[in-house]
Each structure stands twice: as structure tokens, then as C-alpha cells.
Design a protein that fits this description.
5 helices; mainly alpha; 132 residues
Length: 132
């Protein structure tokens, strides 16, 4: 990976004490970028379906594209799964909350229970499409 970035392998460890620390920093950065994209998409002056599609792409599509284009995806997933778990859990909670706010703010005339069910359907559809 260092070679792909144009760095000597040891150079990275001037900034990180271990591979685990590097993966944690990378996970934090990727999650931060993803959430920023979600918030940007939901703030657009577009109809709700377009904003939701943009948010799903910023969260789910972002990681799908990164992993599908990486020769190191399997290694990153295997070795960093537990390291990145906290960051990914925080991203999932923030993503869910952002979608909930968008649905509540859209004044769809739905009660809390119906909005919660709609949220689950939106998330299920987004994750299902990403797996295909």
C-alpha cells in the first residue's frame, strides 16, 4: 500500500506506531468523509428521494467503490474489522440519525412508527443494492 502512495514502507511508521493505528486512522477518515457526504446530500435543495439516494450513495456506495477497486480489500477487511468497528458503528448510528431527521423534516404525514418502518425499508434497499 505504501508503494501505491509513492512512499517507502517505513515512512508511514514515522506517523503511526503500528499497522493497527494506521488502520484506525484510515477508518476514522473514511467514516468522516462518508458522513460528510451524507450530510451534504441531505442538505441539497432536491426532492427527498434524490437526497436519500445521494445519502445512500455517500454511505454505502462510497465504501463499496473503495473496496471493489482495491487489490487489498480482503486484507483491509480481515485485519481492520475489529479495529474499525467503533468508527463504523458510530458512522452507522450517525447515518441512521441523519436519515431519520430527513424523513421527519420532510413532513410526509407519517407517525413515528411509520417513519421508523420507512427508515428500515430505505436502509434495507440501500444495503441490498450494494451487495449485488
Amino acid at each position: 500500500m505504501a508503494n501505491e502512495a509513492g512512499l517507502a514502507k517505513g515512512t508511514i511508521y514515522l506517523y503511526f506506531d503500528s499497522k493497527e493505528e494506521l488502520f484506525a486512522a484510515l477508518a476514522a477518515k473514511l467514516c468522516q468523509e462518508s458522513l460528510g457526504g451524507v450530510e451534504t446530500a441531505l442538505a441539497e435543495p432536491e426532492p427527498l428521494p434524490r437526497r436519500l439516494a445521494g445519502a445512500l450513495d455517500a454511505k454505502i456506495g462510497h465504501f463499496h467503490r473503495l473496496l471493489s477497486g482495491s487489490a487489498h480489500a480482503a486484507e483491509l477487511l480481515d485485519e481492520s474489522a475489529s479495529i474499525a468497528a467503533t468508527h463504523l458503528d458510530q458512522l452507522d448510528r450517525a447515518f441512521r440519525a441523519a436519515i431519520e431527521r430527513a424523513l421527519a423534516g420532510a413532513k410526509l404525514g407519517l407517525g413515528a412508527r411509520a417513519r421508523a418502518e420507512l427508515l428500515l425499508q430505505i436502509l434495507a434497499a440501500g444495503y441490498c443494492v450494494a451487495r449485488q
